[in-house]
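REVIEWER CHECKLIST
Item 1: Sequence provided? yes
Item 2: Single chain? yes
Item 3: Sequence as submitted:
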Amino acid sequence: LEYCLTMTAQRIDGNALSQKLRAEVTSRTQVLKAKGITPGLAVILVGENPASQVYVRNKVKACQDSGLHSLLEKYAEDMTEKALLDRIESLNQDPSIHGILVQLPLPKHIDSQKVIEAISPHKDVDGFHVVNAGRLAVGEEAFVPCTPLGCLMLLKDHMGDLSGKNAVVIGRSNIVGKPMAQLLLAENCTVTIAHSRTQDLPDVVRRADIVVAAVGRAEMVTGDYLKPGAVVIDVGINRLEPEVGQSKGRLVGDVAFDDALRQAGAITPVPGGVGPMTIACLLRNTLVAAHRRAGVAAPEGI
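Item 4: Structure as written out by the authors:
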C-alpha cells in the first residue's frame, strides 16, 4: 500500500526546452541577418576565476552556434576599475554590439554595481541595470535576468496558465529571487519571498503550488517542505565534497532531489534543468536587443 501511494515527480527537461528556444533564436537570427543586421554580444572576463572561464566559454560557443556575433575580451586580475568602465563606454557606442555582459564576480577592487550601471540599459542583456529592474517592477518592457526568465519559461511550458497559483521564491537576490517574484506576479500568481530570516520556512513552502529555490545551500529543501504535487524549480548549483575514490564531488541543487521526487508533481534536475535555459535566454535577450536597435518589432514567441 505504501508503495502505491508513493508518487514520482515528473522531471522537467531544461535541455529540451533550451534547444527549442535556441533553434528559434537561430532561425530569427537568420531572418535579421538577411536584413543586414547580425546580433552581437560582447562578453568581458576580468581575472582567472575557473568557474567564470567555463561560463564564458559556454556563452561564446552558444552565440556562435546560433549565428550571433560574439566578442570575447579577457583582462588581467589587476585591470583598473576606470579601464573597465572606459571599455564598457566604448562598447555602448559600438553599433555592432547589441548586448554587453560583464562576467561576475569581479575582482574585489572593482565595484560591481558601478560596472553594471555603466552598461547602457538598451544593451543590458543580463537585466541587472537598475533601469531594467525598475521597468520590470512596474510592468514595463524590460530586459529580464536570464535565469528567472528561463525559470518562468519552464513553468509555463509545464503548467500553462499560472494565474491564481501560490508561489514561494526562496532567496531574495537581485539576480534571481526579486526578479523571479516580479515575473510570477505579472503571471497573476500569489507570491511569497522567503529568505534566511523567514520563520518556520518549511511551513511557508508547504503552502506553495510553485517553489523556486535559489538560496545557494546544497539540498536545503527536503521532501517534507513540499505540498504534494508542487512544481519545483531548483536554481541552485552546488558541488559536494568528493566521496572516497572520487576526484571531485557531484553537483546538486538547493533541493534534495531524490527526496523531493516522492512528494513533488514535477521538478527540474541539477544539472540539466535551469542551467541550459539561462544561456538560451541570454541569446534570446541579445536577439531582442538587436531588433530594438534596428527599430524592428521583436518576434513573438521567444
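Item 5: Key structural point noted by reviewer: The longest helix spans residues 274-294.
Item 6: Recommendation: ____
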